[in-house]
From TrEMBL:
Keyword list, A-Z: Carbohydrate metabolism, Cytoplasm, Hydrolase, Magnesium, Metal-binding
HAMAP family: FBPase_class1 (MF_01855)
Gene: fbp
GO cellular component annotations of the record: cytosol
Alphabetical list of InterPro entries matching this protein: FBPase_C_dom (IPR044015), FBPase_class-1 (IPR000146), FBPase_N (IPR033391), FBPtase (IPR028343)
SUPFAM superfamilies associated with the record: Carbohydrate phosphatase
Name this polypeptide is given: Fructose-1,6-bisphosphatase class 1
Amino acid sequence: MKRVSLTQHLVEQQRLHNSIPAELRLLIEVVARACKRISYEVSKGALGDILGSADTENIQGEVQKKLDVISNEILLEANEWGGHLAAMASEEMESIHPIPNRYPKGEYMLLFDPLDGSSNIDVNVSIGTIFSVLKAPEGMGEPTEEAFLQPGSAQVAAGYAVYGPQTMLVLTTGQGVHCFTLDREQGSWVLTQSNIQIPAATKEFAINMSNKRHWQPPVQRYIDEMLAGKTGPRGKDFNMRWIASMVADVHRILNRGGVFMYPADMRDPSQPGKLRLMYEANPMAMIVEQAGGAATNGSGRIMDIQPHKLHQRVPVFLGSKEEVELVTRYHAE
Ligand code: P6P
């Protein structure tokens, strides 16, 4: 395969589809460089002072790992001065992060989960960075939280980096899903997959089964019928995977199909699901839909949800189109 860099790919996409203005290309390249730095930090493991907890909590009330804080700082510092952004928002920060007055402002807004799956950091299991790009509303003065509250369909780009056996960057700007592998010797992102397509049917599902007793009845029935295997109503045997790192589970599904589910949990009706809409569900939904899959909250398309809070959570069912549509039908019965 001819070696194509991230920059060359983005310039080509701009030439072919006029979908990536120079400012957006430069923003994506800055985020990609930040993910490269995060990858280097993550790979130090015990050799760097980066494992364990930071003895602080984030807005979600979750204990922050040192790498959560380091990754957040890397993304903030890399993106503050470039002139592409009006503001940023992060899972690790309670409120939005306006660009300091000493720097030029841009027309985009960047949201990210700087290190998703951080419970896996200390046990050397794949983790990742998820990011979403919105346009700042026309005529916006000082950035506000409300300016971020746009449905996922308004995203102009979305992507993730997965820090696993290879470090990979998966990106969409609305013209398909493309995957880059980090060449550590040259420090460059190299295009290794173009126009990834998720198989429409699957025999593999991803869910945290330990929560089964807390799910709503339609999900319990859907899983029970799936587990009945070949002799059950589904007529086929299913396999299960759960990495507890959304980026890793989604990357597997992108490459070989599957359905990923984090359902609403009846323990806390005020918190439907665990995953966050703005910087986990929405970017992953854009990627999955661009790869021919589907992404719903059990009743409707995730990217149609009108957000009402920056850190709001949402149930997530995404992956192979046929399976996601089926589980959504169970909810409708
Ligand atoms: P559980 C990681 O904390 C995360 O946000 C996602 O990456 C992952 O899919 C999910 O939570 C795992 O949740 O309840 O199985 O630990």
